[in-house]
Amino acid sequence: MDTELFLKLRPLFHKYPPLYYKKEQIIIRPEDKIENIYFIEKGFVRFYYLSDEGKEMTFLIYKPGYFFPILYAFFGNKTRYYFEALTPVVLRRAPRETFTKVVEANNALSLAISKEIILRMQGILSKMEFLTLGGAYQNVAFTILICAQEFGKKNKQSIVLNLPLAHKDIASMAGLTRETVSIEMKRLEKEGLIAYKRNHITIKNLDKYKKKTKIELNYEYS
What we know:
Blueprint: H1 3-6, H2 10-13, E1 19-21, E2 26-28, E3 36-42, E4 45-50, E5 56-62, E6 67-68, H3 70-74, E7 82-85, E8 89-95, H4 96-104, H5 107-133, H6 136-151, E9 152-155, E10 158-161, H7 167-174, H8 178-190, E11 194-197, E12 200-203, H9 206-213
Helix pairs in contact: 6-7, 6-8, 7-8
């Protein structure tokens, strides 16, 4: 994401009062009509699907500086998905029509949003590939790596994830049970690839991690 360009939208959102959501509080439900676009000031927001059987699949996690739901700002006003506060969050929201008028009047911003949508779709397709073809070990390792790329802070060869992730969160992203994730996380720890404490993950050595797990990402978030 071109953060500097997208932050030009901040004055639009700051015309409206802040909204505070507690951890695990639902922001948008499938039955809700999409009438507003939300800008994240603080915290993380989870975008996921809930099946009739009660199984969750997390597609994306949004961080401060992002806004959502991007796709539904332009195409349709109904969604099948949930948007939930993964941590306590502070949001601002602008009317959907106001948002789209501002974007459509700025070609550079419109192009940046189109690129962002394509990039996110590419990430979801790569994720589906691993879920279909990879084993549990690689699925967990892949999930950690994409989170590190998106939310990590580099310190020489290591990467510390600024996003707190419980085993159930990783399970929802990897399409696995929490029990399976716990087993594979312990395996990654025993191999010396990660450290995991109080829901915070550190990849100890990125090159070693990629070599051992045989994972390379062919796209990169900014």
